[in-house]
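queue> pop job 88
queue> type: inverse folding (structure -> sequence)
queue> payload:
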């Protein structure tokens, strides 16, 4: 069995309407090993969520389109699978925690029924029992097995099983997020995608939820893609990091490559400069000047060049290639001597 669980390669995704074409993801590549957590970090609009939705096969059908690339999961190209096979993988082998627990849960169903539905959709016997399954009416062995699993999953996320008959409005924001995590983990997926899982939570609850996710991931041996704009979360939870900007991965490497290397992409340096340091409270933050470019009209050359303090003439005219140094990959002319070949980064 290969140590590589997921490999995204040269993925290119657009959103196309009658009026414009949004270049959301631009030829990105990254691997995820078994039992490994990869963080995808960047500003709002960088393409992080689109990447996650593409992996899940949940792009909006009317406007979302994969132009090029492949997504290989456990040896299978997800993009080449028929929708029926994608549904069999989605939720069972690959699950996703969405950004806002308030909108991820059905307000008209109990949390127990919502977790049970996720389990039943992937039961081998569901095809025969589906007519009596919906609405919380389960029969015989199927009902007993499902109820037991619901209780087990709720206990895993720290919710008393006695509360499974309650509705989402009876839970706090942090508890709602635990329910969403329980649904995602109900079938013990091999890969968990967490898209800004603590955005709607206060700092104290955020720390608790992150610790719980990491603990459950280790207990279940699940691989994870953590999508966030917070480098602190990346440092706390991730083994490898992909920094995204304007739909590209402009820097990729192990956690120490990004956080301890003397060489970082200017955008990554800007992200670090925007983080408050409790030990140096007198220092002013150094925000990145300007805004993310319009994805319908990306600049010629390096996409970061209009905001880069080190911009050179070549940056405005040519698009940089990946410069690979062992496990560290940077897309920037500052580190391209001209004799460093572009290639696959070591996993």
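queue> result:
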């Amino acid at each position: 069995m290969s140590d590589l669980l997921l490999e995204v390669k040269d993925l290119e995704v657009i959103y196309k309407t009658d009026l414009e074409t949004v270049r959301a993801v631009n030829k990105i590549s990254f691997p995820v090993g078994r039992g490994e957590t990869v963080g995808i970090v960047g500003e709002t609009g960088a393409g992080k969520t689109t990447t996650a939705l593409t992996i899940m096969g949940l792009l909006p059908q009317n406007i979302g389109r994969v132009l090029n690339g492949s997504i290989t999961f456990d040896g299978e190209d997800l993009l080449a699978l028929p929708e029926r096979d994608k549904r069999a993988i989605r939720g069972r082998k690959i699950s996703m925690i969405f950004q806002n627990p308030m909108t991820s849960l059905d307000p008209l169903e109990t949390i127990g029924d919502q977790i049970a539905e996720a389990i039943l959709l992937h039961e081998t016997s569901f095809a025969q029992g589906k007519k009596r399954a919906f609405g919380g009416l389960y029969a015989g062995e199927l009902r007993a097995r499902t109820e037991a699993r619901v209780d087990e999953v709720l206990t895993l996320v720290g919710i008393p099983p006695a509360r499974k008959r309650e509705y989402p409005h009876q839970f706090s924001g942090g508890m709602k997020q635990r329910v969403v995590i329980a649904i995602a983990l109900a079938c013990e997926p091999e890969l968990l995608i967490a898209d800004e899982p603590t955005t709607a939570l206060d700092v104290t609850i955020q720390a608790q939820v992150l610790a719980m996710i990491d603990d459950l991931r280790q207990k279940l041996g699940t691989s994870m893609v953590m999508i966030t704009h917070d480098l602190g979360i990346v440092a706390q939870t991730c083994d490898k990091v992909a920094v995204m900007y304007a739909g590209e991965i402009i820097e990729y490497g192990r956690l120490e490559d990004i956080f301890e290397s003397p060489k970082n992409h200017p955008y990554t340096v800007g992200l670090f400069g925007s983080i408050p340091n409790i030990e140096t409270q007198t220092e002013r933050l150094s925000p990145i000047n300007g805004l993310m470019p319009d994805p319908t009209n990306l600049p010629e050359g390096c996409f970061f060049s209009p905001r880069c303090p080190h911009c050179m003439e070549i940056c405005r005219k040519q698009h940089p290639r990946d410069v690979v140094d062992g496990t560290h990959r940077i897309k920037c002319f500052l580190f391209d001597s001209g004799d460093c070949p572009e290639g696959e980064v070591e996993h």
